[in-house]
Amino acid sequence: MINNDFWAIKIDALDGLQRVAQSFLQNPTEKISFFGLSEDRQNPKYKINNSTAIIQVHGPIAKRPGLFSFFDSTNYEQLSRQFIEAEQDNEVKAIVLDIDSPGGVVSGTDEFTNLVASSKKPVVAYSSGLMCSAAFWVGAAASKIIISKTAELGSIGVMQWHYDESKMDSDIGVERTVLTAGEFKAVGHSAAPLSDRDRGVMQGELQYLYDVFIDAIAKNRGVSTESVQKNMADGRVFIGVQAVEAGLADQIGTFEDAIASALNTNNINPEKNNESIIKEDVMPDITTVEALQAAYPDLIKQVITEATNQATASAGKEITRVMALVGAHFGPEETKKLEQVVEMGLTAEQYQAFKDLAPKAETSPNKQPAAGQPIDPKHAEMLKALQENASAQNPGADPAAAQPAAGQDFMNLVKTHMTANKVGYNEAFKEVIKTSPKAHAEYLKQVNKK
């Protein structure tokens, strides 16, 4: 019964359970007759003290009634029934979990703690004895934890025992053969020493349950998982004030304090240790823009979006004003031509490069297309290439605001020439040197600086 279960319990308590269980199994009839099992032990009831339901969580915790029922123990089946009844009892205004337990089996713990955490009534956990391992898992789900100066909390972790009975089998002349269908069906069996493979599988299962344990405490105590692992969950036991300082409990007090606190909802902090969260997790040391972005990525993204929208709107109003002035001075035909260039998002340098590279029209060089008349296909292809190049340099930005860095215009012209004339890099490079000597000279300056 001890061998195959996962336990969240103090090691000395598990040792004691094992010894008692072995003794019990050697003479079960005598032990059952001695202990008996009264109705109160089979179906415990919560007590009501000043409109507060007192639910005892005493002794080792099993999943359901069984062998442990003959000892000073409890189980999640009975605890859940009592808790649900207390929630539905109109006479009950609050609930106090009176905990004195070293922990127990892992199975059933998470389900019961979720029941406690989701309670619509205030729940306070109190301990003047033990609130360890699975019992702390339970207590952490309460709205508040109050303990005496000598209460022991912690022992957070998960364990499992493996017995190698192969020598004992050999001593009594027994040889066991384990047959399985399924590679991991008999992991950790007792007929042989624990293999490295089986140890790894079992350790992986323990680690998974430990992570579930840690996550539950972090969520219910309102702290980070890192804080739980660093300050609470190395398996140690914390006593009294030590437990409060480590964050396992909220205050030192008496059982009467727990009842008063449960009834006075103003003393219940629904965010649990929200103050410590703000101090530890939400208020990082921010001294750089990068740290600010890392701490508040969603907020920074929203600010940038709103600022971009405002800038775009302002830029649009300014363009409208300037185009109105152009129209008043030059007339609608010239304004239409200018609007076409502006909408393409080209810089002045790129547009000048386009004029330098554009194939000469058969008509007079000074003659421009009439307003609304399609641009020459060759010109359109070159303009499109320039526009795409401008967008690629600054994705997501306003194309009209794109300003290439010094020395970059020349290479942009080369790429544009390649695209527009469908020629190779070397040919485009030589041609642009001829047509844009100033851009080439600036490019050489930048290269020589590197």
Structure write-up:
With 450 residues, the protein is α/β, with parallel strands linked by helices. It has two domains: 7-162 and 195-279, 2-enoyl-CoA Hydratase, Chain A, domain 1; 331-449, no CATH class. 52% of the residues lie in helices and 10% in strands. The protein contains 20 helices and 13 strands. Strands 2-3-6-8-10-13 form a six-stranded mixed β-sheet, with helices on both faces. The longest helix has 34 residues, at 297-330. The protein starts with 6 loop residues before the first strand and ends with a helix.
Q: Distance between the terminal alpha carbons, to the nearest Å?
A: 75 Å
Query: Portion of residues in helices?
Result: 40-55%
What is the CATH C-level name of the largest domain? Alpha Beta
Structural class: alpha/beta
Gyration radius over CA: 39 Å
Residue windows where pLDDT falls under 50 for at least 5 positions: 30-39, 266-283, 361-368, 396-406
Query: How many structural domains are formed by the residues?
Result: 2
Q: How much of the polypeptide forms β-strand, as a percent range? A: 5-15%
If helices are DSSP runs of H or I spanning 4 or more residues, what is the number of helices? 20
Adjacency order of strands in the biggest sheet: 2-3-6-8-10-13
Oligomer: single chain
Count all strands and give the number: 13
CATH A-level architecture of the largest domain = Alpha-Beta Complex
Q: Identify the CATH homologous superfamily of the largest domain.
A: 2-enoyl-CoA Hydratase, Chain A, domain 1
